[in-house]
Structure formats: C-alpha cells, structure tokens
Amino acid sequence: TGAVTFDPGFMNTAATTSAITYIDGDQGILRYRGYPIDQLAQHSSFLEVSYLLIYGNLPTPTELAAFDNRIRRHTLLHEELKGFFGGFPRDAHPMPVLSSAVSALSTFYQDSLDPFDDEQVELSTFRLMAKLPVIAAYAHKKSIGQPMLYPDNSMNLVENFMRLCFGLPAEPYDLDPTMVKALDLLLILHADHEQNCSTSTVRLVGSSNANMFASISAGINALFGPLHGGANEAVLNMLREIKAKGMQPEDFMEKVKNKEDGVKLMGFGHRVYKNYDPRAKIVKATAHDILSKLGGNDELLDIAMRLEEKALADDYFIERKLYPNVDFYTGLIYKAMGFPEKMFTVLFAIGRLPGWIAQWREMMQDPQTKIGRPRQLYTGAGERHYPAR
Ligand code: CMC
C-alpha cells in the first residue's frame, strides 16, 4: 500500500477525474462542460443546463423538448409517499425531510436500483428531476399548514415548483414571470460545482454501488451544513441580527476579525475561489434589479453591500483572499420571492440536483472507479491488554 499522504479536508488530493465542471479558483472562472457560467446565465435555462451537465452537450430543440416532456411525466408522487410528510413535526426543517423522502424513493422504485442498468439509471434521473421540486414544495406546504397541490404538467419544472409552493387549491395561481426567471437563473448558478462536499458525498456513497436515490439523499444531508449549502440561510440570519441590534457593519467586522464566539462573515470565503466567485458576481449584478421588481428588503441589501465593501478593503479579508461566494446575496432574493429562510438550502438542493446526477453517472461509467476508502493516520493507544477481572 505504500506511504499514506495526510491531507485533511482534501486540500490537495484529487479523488477523481471529471469532464463536467471546470473551476479556476485564482481567476474566478467557472464553466459547465466548457461553457462559461455567465454565458449560460444569460442565454440558457435551468432545464437546458441540466441536460448539458447530464449528457455532456447542449441539446437540440427536439432533444430539449423530449427531456422536458419526460420530466413532466414523472412529477406525481406516490400517494403513500405523501403520507410520509405527516410523520414529521410541523416545524421540521425541510432539508432532512427532503433527504428522507429522496431516500424513501428507493422503497417505491425497487426495480430500478441497479446502478449499471442504463435504462433504469435514465428512469431514476427523470424521477429525481421531476419529484425533488415536488417533495421540496410539499415539505414547505406541510410546515405552513397548507394543502399540497397536485403538479400541473402544463407547466415546466420551475413554474410548477413555484405554483406548488405558493398556489392554493381555492384560487388560480398567477405565475410571476420575474420570479420564474430569477429562480431559473439562481438554479443555473447552483447546478454544479465539481467536487464540493455534497458532490463528493454523492460519489463516495455511490462508489459502493449504492443506487442514485441513496447517494443523492446523502448529498442532500451534506448540503444541509452551514459551511456548505446552509450558508445562504445563515447569511440572512446574520444580516437580520445586525439590523435588529442596530449594529454598524464595522462593529460586526471587528467581531469577525477577532474571531469572537467563532463568528464568521457568512457568505464569504471559499475553498477553491481565491478571487471573486463568478456566481456571486452574477447574483450581485441582478440582486438590485430583482429586488426592486419583487419589492425586497433594501435595508438588508444595503447592510450586505456595506459589509462587502468593508471586507474587500480590509487586510484580514485581503490577506486570506476572502471574497463573497454564491450564498452572500441569494438569500435576499429568495426572501423577496416569499420563501422562508428554511427553504433557502432546499432551493440550493434543487439547483444542485443535475450536478449530483451527472457526477454520479460519470462515476458509474468510469472504469477507473473504485470504492472510496480514505486512509488514516492512527493516533490512538498502542496495544493494551484487557485486564483480568
Ligand atoms: N469569515 C471570516 N473568516 C473566514 C471566513 C469567513 N467567512 N472564511 C474563512 N475565514 C478565515 C478562517 O478563519 C481562516 O483564518 P486563519 O487562517 O486565521 O485561521 C482562513 O480564513 C482560511 O479559512 P478556512 O476555514 O481554513 O478555509 P476553508 O477552505 O477550510 O473553508 C469555507 C472554506 C467556505 C468553509 C469558509 O470560508 C467558511 O466557513 N465560509 C463561511 C461559510 C460559507 O459562506 N459557506 C458557503 C461556501 S460557498 C457555497 C457552497 O459551496 O456551499
């Protein structure tokens, strides 16, 4: 086995080759399958980006329509799965509800669990793409005590999700095109990010030949953490607290710099980006526009912008190359759309789903894949003898 290299947090260890996403953290470059994120953000749609990530190339219009149609045909949840939502406390956080429900999909589709059966993998892909937004919307409805609506397959994935989250059975739901467009853009920005914590989790679980539902359920749990997907919720809480306490951004920065109570500037810093996160750049550029159209909270946006301005001019942040990441401004937009804080990370999960699927599929098809099994450096006791009693 040879010498073992010690690399906590995988700072320098590549665990896989991958042809899906390219990041240059020093330059602040992000490309999906070769296409720069800003071009996709401007011209593409979440559905098209999902196809691109999963199949490797942009679809023709016919391919995109077929992809869209197949997803629409799988939106219904098994009625028994709906019963499942009643088993959680009313104030349950929707992330563990989401991961549990995705895990439970393995029990409803027991014939499609072979990770090497291409047809079944394709079916699981469509089921997940179609059902995750529905599960997410139901977790939300349950938490606010409202009835769950059936999906309306005349709508696409993003439109349907909006209606399932905000519609009521008693009245027609008017889609707000600004909101649909804004959410579509945010989902594109979250769709993949190479070997981040949740994607690596999906791969590690899948490397044991676990099925796609089980692997992605694990990824959702990894995303729940505040250092990963949970950061968008944490940012909004931070901004709120600064406002509620009437704090000046400068005073909050002092706390961060002195590492008082482990306070961090949430939404700042990244393992790979040592430059402005290109996704954050796009969100920031659109935040003002979207917030003015949706009537968002300008005061919190002002606090966020002042924090950013201070941070970018501060030696602490400059020396450590800490820049805003994708989560810094997204929460403000989600809030303006009407999503409660608890749903923010769920939105991240819906966005990241095609990336997880693409990475899982790439791994399963890769002849180099081996079961993931990190080594350790043992630091415990030497041999001890069990005392005679
Ligand atoms: N505020 C204050 N100090 C920070 C921050 C921050 N947000 N991020 C890093 N630092 C400091 C950290 O304390 C350390 O300082 P020192 O050298 O004095 O010990 C130095 O910068 C290096 O940071 P690190 O924690 O060793 O870096 P990492 O690559 O292990 O962690 C990170 C990356 C994203 C977990 C971290 O920057 C962080 O906790 N940020 C806040 C949470 C956040 O916004 N997460 C979302 C990440 S982007 C979306 C996603 O992928 O989920």
UniProtKB/TrEMBL annotation:
CDD domains the UniProt entry points to: EcCS_like
Catalysis: reaction(s): oxaloacetate + acetyl-CoA + H2O = citrate + CoA + H(+)
InterPro entries documented for this protein: Citrate_synth-like_lrg_a-sub, Citrate_synth-like_sm_a-sub, Citrate_synthase, Citrate_synthase_AS, Citrate_synthase_bac-typ, Citrate_synthase_sf, Citrate_synthase_typ-I
Pathway info: Carbohydrate metabolism; tricarboxylic acid cycle; isocitrate from oxaloacetate: step 1/2
Domain of life: Bacteria
Keywords, in A-Z order: Transferase, Tricarboxylic acid cycle
Cross-referenced SUPFAM superfamilies: Citrate synthase (SSF48256)
Similarity section: Belongs to the citrate synthase family.
Protein name: Citrate synthase
High-level lineage: Bacteria, Bacillati, Actinomycetota, Actinomycetes, Micrococcales
